[in-house]
Design goal:
Blueprint: H1 3-44, H2 60-66, H3 69-100, H4 106-114, H5 121-131, H6 137-144, H7 156-183, H8 188-196, H9 201-212, H10 214-230, H11 233-239, H12 251-261, H13 265-296
Helix pairs in contact: 1-13, 2-13, 3-4, 3-7, 3-10, 5-11, 7-10, 10-13, 12-13
């Protein structure tokens, strides 16, 4: 056999295998550090705690969760987070739009907006706990203009909104960077045509920028949702510790309480499994709705 075709065949085979070889380490890390622990956690959720440790108990842990007012309240708060998600995405999206359109001072705003993202959640929580205290500076400012003090972190109807608001403030810088990267793929000729036609800024945003950034918006929606459901523990722990009366409980805080304080790892695994399923379902629904609206536009 001619050695030249043989070398060409080996080269083609190597080129076909190259992508798989390059991806293999990342896939291995995901399987070993993500998927395998996930499977173990789901399996562990069907076992018991305490005297029944390691014993199969079927769906008992899930029945216990559904009968626990704290966990039910945590799921209710998840619904609130999903309802507030468009606001959490719209804020960095609008700010990125203004920066992209080069409003005066846009370079300074780019740095200022990203700064909170580098702060530790514990530091952010400590700062806002002082600001929002009943005798803190915010209530002092309200008192100076004749408005009564508000128990920002002690009122069950207000506390969860404060924690979510602080989380959005502390994390929207990352979404802002993603939006700015998405603007690099936007067709500038469409913006120029809209300006020439005299379109107002709201119409430019709705009819040009939003359709052009549909994939970026989908990505930010999903990542922001995941961040809300899995990255608020530090703020909750410092600002409210789940209170008042469990009003600011979220599944991740409930999981920590069951695992870290009450030593009920199987129940915590069941709660983690429910949280994972909620994220998957909500994420798929969001992507489906956004894709459908993108096709309609």
């Amino acid at each position: 056999m001619d050695p030249v075709p043989r070398r060409a065949t080996r080269r083609r085979n190597a080129e076909r295998l190259a992508p798989y070889v390059l991806v293999a380490p990342a896939v291995l890390v995901v399987v070993v550090l993500r998927l395998y622990p996930l499977v173990l956690g789901v399996n562990f959720s069907f076992t018991g705690d305490g005297d029944s440790d390691g014993t199969a108990v079927g769906l008992d842990n899930y029945v216990t969760l559904m009968g626990d007012p704290l966990f039910v309240g945590a799921l209710r708060n998840v619904g609130l987070l999903v309802a507030l998600l468009p606001v959490a995405v719209a804020i960095p999206g609008l700010l990125a739009t203004f920066i992209y359109l080069r409003v005066p001072g846009h370079r300074i705003f780019r740095s200022v907006y990203f700064f909170p993202a580098v702060l530790s959640p514990v530091i952010v929580g400590a700062i806002f706990t002082l600001l929002l205290a009943f005798d803190g500076p915010l209530n002092a400012l309200l008192g100076s203009v004749g408005l009564g003090p508000v128990d920002w972190l002690g009122d069950p109807d207000v506390a969860i909104f404060m924690v979510v608001g602080v989380h959005v403030w502390a994390t929207f810088g990352m979404a802002l960077v993603v939006f700015l990267a998405g603007f690099a793929t936007l067709d500038t000729s469409l913006l120029d045509a809209a300006r020439i036609d005299g379109a107002a800024l709201p119409r430019i945003i709705w009819h040009v920028i939003v359709p052009g950034l549909s994939r970026t918006i989908q990505f930010v929606f999903v990542t922001t949702m995941i961040g809300m459901l899995t990255s608020m523990f530090g703020l909750l722990y410092v600002m409210t510790s789940g209170g008042p009366g469990g009003a600011t409980y979220l599944p991740e805080y409930y999981i920590w309480i069951q695992q870290g304080q009450l030593n009920r790892p199987a129940l915590a695994s069941a709660a983690a499994t429910v949280l994972f399923l909620v994220m998957v379902v909500v994420g798929l629904l969001q992507v489906s709705v956004l894709r459908r609206s993108g096709r309609e536009d």
